[in-house]
Amino acid sequence: MDTQSDNGEKSETESVDSSENIIRTPTENEPLSVVTIGDSVSYDADLAIKAVLESTKTVNVENRSFGGVGLTQKGFKGYLKESLENEPEVMTVMIGGWDLAFAEENQKEYEQIIENSIEEILKVSSLIIWIGMPPTPEGEGLEENRHLVNQIYREISDRKIEVEFIDTDELLGSEQGAFVRFLTGLDGKTYQIRKVRNGKDDGHLCPFGAAVIGRSVFEKIEERFPLFTKEDNWWLGEWTKDQRYDDPTGGCSYIPVE
After folding, report:
1. Using one digit for the tens of pLDDT, what is the confidence trace for 180-214?
2. Where in the chain are the domains?
3. Using alpha carbons only, what angle is made at residue 165 by residues 217 and 63, rounded to the nearest 5 degrees?
4. Do 43 and 224 touch, CB atoms closer than 8 A?
5. CA–CA separation, 243 vs 239, rounded Å?
6. Distance between CA atoms of 8 and 169, rounded to whole angstroms?
7. End-to-end CA distance of the chain
8. 97 or 232, which is more confident?
9. If DSSP states are collapsed to H, E and C, what string results for the chain?
10. What is the pTM of this model?
């Protein structure tokens, strides 16, 4: 699975020598443990992350994302504690939408909440993959605050060797990082990556959009834990038929206008 978008890799000056970066090599007898947490967009990405990582036969993934999750939302601390109970070596975090209003009014406090959450995760996990909030439809009026929280996530990630940031503007956006409904793969085909709801663009993911994120997560984890995919067509698996990708009905079945 290939697309024409950039993966947002860190520059050479930011990267550590790959051999020094490796934590351990997972095996079938000693698989890598990964937990995914986040909101409803993360929920859409979850199955792709699970599919690509478990295609290696050396990773076990526990998906724990669901709608309404945010660092500033009631119950998050308990949710995080439960998500860490099985002591995952890697945790993916994909949030933002439910924190935008708080972050706009309380940026410094929000930064501290992120720092505290990272500290809690790193008591258990050795790597955090922090996935940026993807571009939102223009009509939702969220882009300014989305850019704010993503910049915070990026800056904090850049300061911590244990945290890798994924820029979803580059993965799922236009050349300018704006919302797009479709993405062209290197095979020349056009795939729907974001849902349509009531005839309007919606921020949630279709299977190919989820797969693009899944592949990027795989690449980030592989830098610390060497992995090898055993199923080239993992992105076309049964997971793509899950009901979440047909909610609303037909939301991922739109045809691009040539």
Report:
1. 999 988 678 899 999 999 999 999 999 999 999 99
2. 25-177+209-226
3. 45
4. no
5. 9
6. 9
7. 22
8. 97
9. CCECCCCCCCCCCCCCCHHHHCCCCCCCCCCEEEEEEECHHHHHHHHHHHHHHHCCCCEEEEECCCCCCCCCCCCHHHHHHHHCCCCCCEEEEECCCCCHHHHHHCHHHHHHHHHHHHHHHHCCCCEEEEECCCCCCHHHCCHHHHHHHHHHHHHHHHCCCCEEEECHHHHHECCCCCECCEEEECCCCEEECEEEECCEEEEEECHHHHHHHHHHHHHHHHCCCCCCCCCCCHHHCHHHHCHHHHCCCCCCCCCCCC
10. 0.91
Percent with pLDDT over 90 in the chain? 85
Rounded to an integer, what distance in angstroms lies between the CA atom of residue 240 and that of residue 233?
A: 12
Right CATH for 25-177+209-226 from 3.20.20.70, 2.70.70.10, 3.40.50.2300, 3.40.50.1110 = 3.40.50.1110
Q: What dihedral angle (degrees, nearest 10) is formed by the CA atoms of 56, 62, 65, 70?
A: -110
Amino acid at position 181, single letter: R
Of 15-24, 32-41, 234-243, give the lowest mean pLDDT range. Answer: 15-24
Q: Tell whether omega for the bond before 248 is within 30 degrees of 0, i.e. cis.
A: yes
- In the block, tokens 């020598």 appear at 17
